[in-house]
Amino acid sequence: MSKIILASASPRRKELFEQTGIPFVVEVSDYREDMNLKLKPLELAKELSRGKAEAVAKNHKNEDAVIIGADTFVVFKNKILGKPHTAEKAKEMIKEMSGRGHSVITGFTVLDVKSGREVSRAVESKVFFRKLTDKEIDTYVKNGEPLDKAGAYAIQEFGSVLIKKVDGDYSNIVGLPLAPLIEELKKFGVKL
Fold it and tell me: Are 85 and 147 contacting, i.e. CB atoms less than 8 angstroms apart?
């Protein structure tokens, strides 16, 4: 069986992929994301995931390896929201999304190093925040969780208290849409 490499620094993606039971290793990609590419969000997610997978593939020329690259971001009012990095920016993002819905898009690429075959897909899920008070937002931001999360929250952690409802693939919102990914991996001969 091919060596499976998850090209990601995300601990959440690693935890999700562990749920498949497929043996794999993690190798962080040195790909520099360019969020300013003139692409629609679904295409941008695929392009960024492809860049990550291809960057790691360069380290494994002619090996029997399958690389998985992924990228996740939030889209609100037709604008891509990345990681806020500051408490002020996190509060601003959450306040704006309070009582409203947004999309979480994850692009993923599966790349077979030996054959050069690759496929990229993007999955979109909808998340709806409940109406939040300023105190709730402050309390959430003070715990530090939102600073390194796209859209300033983590649905699988304390951020779950912000959510009213979800429409779509939950694992996609966390950062790796498992069912669609498994579908593609099977086409590459990867067995569960």
Answer: yes
